[in-house]
User: Which sequence fits this backbone?
């Protein structure tokens, strides 16, 4: 049996949102047992909030987007939630003074370090899991994402990208906090060079730069160096873990993903949630 955990002391991080480019401060507070992961928009009237355990409004977009009971939203939280998964934190309150948390270095590593620097403390209540009892999957064209019964958490991901610098990459491993910290958390978000301008025109990536985003040319990242030879697929695994932790509880099951992205990840969360509320 595992017990729930939270951080020992409050802290804040500031920076610019990856998509909006807006300055933002994110404040992190210890959470009470069974309270879950709570997001708050402190800049909006009434400080609307939601606990991921009770989450019902979830947009399937290019990034995670959480509705706060029609009074606002928070978005692009997957790097924070992935770090929370890696730190095994069940209960925490996160207050934002904008719609999106800071991008930092485009990975989950700095969030994970901040949680560990704040200290992580065990609580008295037993940890809750989403224990997969039967296969659940989503398909969209050539993309597939499924979760299957298993007593361990294992992720197998195949990435295929129309670029010689990325191409076909795969990752398959049993994941725990130690493996996550070393093999997944440092992997940064990425896009192709030709995608960057199109994303900006669509209103995305206003806070992106060559340091917090791997902008991939035919020969590799522009003005940057890969942290792993297969960093793109590792970041896809990071995003997947972060999106799945929007369930508010860690999954016990085997994940198989082929060309999956946020849209499919969030569709799977919506499909899993009613059965494990």
Assistant:
């Amino acid at each position: 049996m595992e017990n729930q955990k939270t951080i020992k002391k409050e802290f804040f991080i500031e920076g610019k949102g990856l998509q909006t480019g807006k300055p933002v401060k994110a404040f992190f507070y210890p959470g009470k047992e069974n309270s879950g992961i709570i997001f708050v928009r402190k800049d909006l009237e009434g400080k609307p909030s939601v606990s991921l355990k009770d989450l019902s409004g979830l947009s399937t977009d290019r990034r995670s987007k959480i509705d706060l009971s029609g009074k606002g939203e928070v978005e692009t939280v997957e790097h924070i939630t992935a770090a929370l998964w890696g730190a095994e934190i069940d209960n925490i309150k996160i207050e934002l003074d904008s719609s999106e948390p800071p991008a930092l270095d485009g990975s989950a590593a700095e969030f994970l370090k901040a949680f560990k620097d704040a200290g992580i403390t065990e609580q008295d209540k037993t940890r809750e899991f989403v224990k997969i009892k039967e296969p659940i999957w989503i398909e969209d064209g050539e993309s597939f994402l499924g979760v299957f019964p298993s007593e361990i958490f294992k992720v197998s991901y195949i990435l295929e990208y129309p670029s010689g610098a990325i191409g076909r990459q795969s990752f398959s491993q049993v994941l725990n906090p130690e493996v996550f910290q070393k093999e997944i958390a440092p992997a940064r978000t990425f896009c192709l060079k030709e995608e960057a301008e199109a994303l900006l025109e669509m209103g995305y990536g206003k806070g992106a730069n060559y340091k917090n985003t791997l902008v991939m040319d035919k020969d590799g990242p522009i003005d940057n160096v890969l942290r792993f030879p297969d960093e793109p697929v590792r970041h896809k695994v990071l995003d997947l873990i972060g999106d799945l932790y929007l369930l508010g509880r860690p999954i016990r099951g085997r994940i198989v993903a082929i060309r999956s992205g946020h849209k499919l990840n969030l569709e799977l969360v919506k499909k899993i949630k009613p059965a494990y509320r």
Remarks:
- The CA atoms of residues 32 and 66 lie 22 Å apart.
- The mean pLDDT is 93.
